[in-house]
Write a structure and sequence with these properties.
The protein contains seven helices and no strands. It is mainly alpha-helical. It is globular, with a radius of gyration of 18 Å.
């Protein structure tokens, strides 16, 4: 992943794509900071965690910009999200996600909302990077209702 980011950064520099270059540099900086904090090279899972965090920050910013009627900033943030999504694994379909949730509910023997934490603990490692955490939480709540 880091090699891919380096190659894409070189291409963006050659093509003078300032916005793409800015996003890649931001992500590389976040990855480097995480590696320094961890004290070792990041595993693929750790890289994925950082990328998801970056994506989440941008989605939250997009919502705030939209609420504030700042379409200029919202469109810029949407373009950043589009660029960043290229580095994340393909998202699970609704059917795939529901199957994982149903399996976790059956495995944990959950019977109501009180068991939500147990089910989420089983589901999240299985869908890490492949589904938005908020969506997973919403679907688990629906399944346990």
């Amino acid at each position: 992943m880091i090699n891919q980011l380096n190659e894409d950064m070189k291409q963006a520099m050659r093509a003078k794509e300032k916005e793409r270059l800015s996003v890649i540099r931001s992500v590389k900086s976040a990855l480097q900071n995480e590696a320094i904090q961890a004290g070792h090279d990041l595993s693929e899972e750790e890289v994925l965690t950082v990328l998801n965090r970056e994506m989440k920050q941008r989605r939250e910013s997009l919502q705030e910009f939209s609420r504030a009627d700042r379409e200029d900033l919202a469109s810029k943030t949407q373009r950043e999200i589009d660029l960043l999504s290229r580095y994340l694994p393909e998202q699970m379909s609704d059917e795939e996600l529901q199957a994982v949730i149903d399996e976790a509910v059956a495995e944990s023997g959950a019977s109501g909302r009180a068991d939500m934490g147990r089910v989420m603990g089983l589901v999240m490692p299985r869908v890490k990077g492949k589904a938005d955490g908020g969506l997973v939480r919403e679907r688990v709540q629906q399944s346990l209702s």
